[in-house]
């Protein structure tokens, strides 16, 4: 691993990353085959202290920064990207607690539960009618005031890790005369929650990103996060673009690195009789291996340069992070596709890890904001920078 990915935080216990990655890799194929929720791998991540790595020292945590979290997700993604994605959805809210705090008493409860068992968190934002929340109007999901708090009503889709979550962060609009929008924090097990098993995808099969229906779900008045008028929600081009880059792209870099390792092993161990020497010694394999490494190393440098800048407190334009994400997504998908083309039929066999990596990497560009939403933002910013004076 390059020096850019080395932890800058001595208090974070990241020494077990290789061990955790290997443990997840041992069961990844089976979870991919069955689509079952990865309870045991999540337990491994929990016991390694990684789910709460981003908890700030003021709350008793190790205080991992963006660079550390990117490194964690890279390692988890190399082992099992479904587990990595579920874990990342929990790691990031802890990382952001000092910037976007939860209610104090509720967060203390989450930390107490996290010390005893995996306590998974995730946003529930996308809806069947509107798709990604970065594109649509007010959410159809509503939060109605009650005598004791809020009553949540609505349907969400693509809720990663749904059946294993401890808390749903439900994006909803209030029923007030002037509606506000925010995240309503719903503890799992609250009456009125129904998980609808709809997740049947090409890749990332064990993420359990099912639909969730909330019917008159009652929560306390204070279980609200970032409640604000419409339009105050962070848009593409702001810091959350950097966060999403770290959350999604770094774990998929792990997928691509796993694919690369499989190609290297194949090249060193396969000696065709007609050739009389390993494929790794041929010009074709060496040239293609160089192409793959160039794609992955440049993607890695982009991811970690953004992370390090955020950790240092340097000004980071959201559009720069979003532009980097476009390049990273293109590089990762091209690298894995190139690996499959190099191996041919052996790479597409269902018993090959490369076939699974190829399916999983297709999801890297799906996470919002997508390329079609990013490029107009980046382009408008670039054009505005050289607009003629009126």
Name given to the CATH architecture of the largest domain: Up-down Bundle
* Radius of gyration based on Cα positions: 22 Å
Q: Quickly count the domains.
A: 3
Note the total helix count: 11
CATH class of the largest domain: Mainly Alpha
Given helix and strand content, the structural type is: alpha+beta
Q: What would CATH call the homologous superfamily of the largest domain?
A: Butyryl-CoA Dehydrogenase, subunit A, domain 3
Mean pLDDT: 91
Low-confidence stretches: 1-12
How many strands?
8
CATH topology of the largest domain: Butyryl-CoA Dehydrogenase, subunit A, domain 3
Indicate the percent of residues in helices. 40-55%
Which sequence of SSEs, written as H and E, runs from N to C?
HHHHHEEEEEEEEHHHHHH
Major beta-sheet overview: 8 strands, mixed
What proportion strand? 5-15%
- Multimerization state: single chain
Name the overall outline. globular
Task: Report the end-to-end length measured between terminal Cα atoms.
Answer: 50 Å
Give an overview in words:
- Strands 1, 2, 3, 4, 5, 6, 7 and 8 form an 8-stranded mixed β-sheet that branches.
- The protein has 3 domains: 3-118, Butyryl-Coa Dehydrogenase, subunit A, domain 1, CATH 1.10.540.10; 123-228, Butyryl-CoA Dehydrogenase, subunit A, domain 2 (Beta Barrel); 240-383, Butyryl-CoA Dehydrogenase, subunit A, domain 3 (Up-down Bundle).
- It is 47% helix and 14% strand.
- The protein is α+β, with helices and mostly antiparallel strands.
- The chain has helices at 17-34, 39-47, 66-79, 81-95, 104-116, 240-269, 283-312, 318-343, 345-348, 353-361, 371-385; strands spanning 121-124, 142-145, 149-159, 167-174, 181-187, 193-196, 210-220, 224-228.
């Amino acid at each position: 691993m390059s020096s850019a990915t080395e932890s800058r935080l001595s208090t974070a216990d990241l020494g077990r990353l290789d061990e955790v990655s290997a443990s997840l890799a041992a069961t990844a194929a089976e979870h991919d085959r069955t689509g079952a929720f990865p309870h045991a791998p999540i337990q491994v991540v929990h016991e390694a202290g990684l789910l709460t790595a981003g908890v700030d020292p003021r709350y008793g945590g190790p205080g991992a920064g963006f660079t550390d979290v990117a490194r964690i997700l890279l390692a988890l993604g190399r082992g099992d990207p479904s587990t990595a994605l579920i874990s990342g959805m929990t790691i990031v809210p802890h990382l952001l607690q000092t910037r976007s705090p939860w209610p104090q008493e509720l967060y203390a409860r989450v930390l107490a539960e996290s010390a005893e068992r995996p306590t998974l968190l995730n946003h529930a934002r996308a809806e069947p009618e509107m798709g990604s929340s970065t594109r649509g109007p007010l959410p159809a999901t509503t939060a109605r005031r009650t005598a004791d708090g809020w009553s949540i009503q609505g349907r969400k889709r693509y809720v990663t890790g749904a059946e294993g979550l401890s808390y749903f962060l439900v994006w909803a609009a209030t029923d007030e005369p002037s509606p506000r929008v925010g995240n309503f924090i719903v503890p799992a097990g609250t009456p009125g929650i129904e998980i609808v098993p709809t997740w049947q995808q090409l890749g990332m099969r064990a993420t359990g990103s099912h639909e969730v229906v909330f019917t008159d779900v009652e929560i306390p008045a204070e279980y609200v996060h970032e409640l604000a008028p419409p339009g105050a929600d962070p848009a593409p081009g702001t810091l959350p673009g950097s966060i999403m880059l770290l959350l999604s792209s770094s774990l998929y870099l792990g997928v691509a690195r796993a694919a690369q390792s499989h190609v290297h092993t194949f090249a060193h161990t396969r000696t065709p009789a007609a050739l009389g020497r390993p494929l790794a010694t041929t010009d074709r394999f060496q040239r293609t291996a160089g192409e793959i490494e160039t794609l992955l190393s440049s993607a890695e440098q982009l991811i970690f340069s953004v992370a390090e800048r955020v950790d240092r407190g340097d000004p980071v334009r959201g559009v720069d992070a979003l532009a980097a994400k476009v390049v990273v997504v293109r590089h990762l998908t091209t690298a894995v596709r190139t690996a499959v083309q190099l191996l041919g039929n052996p790479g597409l066999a269902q018993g090959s890890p490369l076939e699974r990596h190829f399916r999983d990497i297709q999801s890297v560009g799906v996470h919002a904001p997508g390329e079609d939403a990013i490029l107009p933002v980046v382009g408008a910013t670039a054009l505005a920078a050289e607009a003629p004076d009126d």
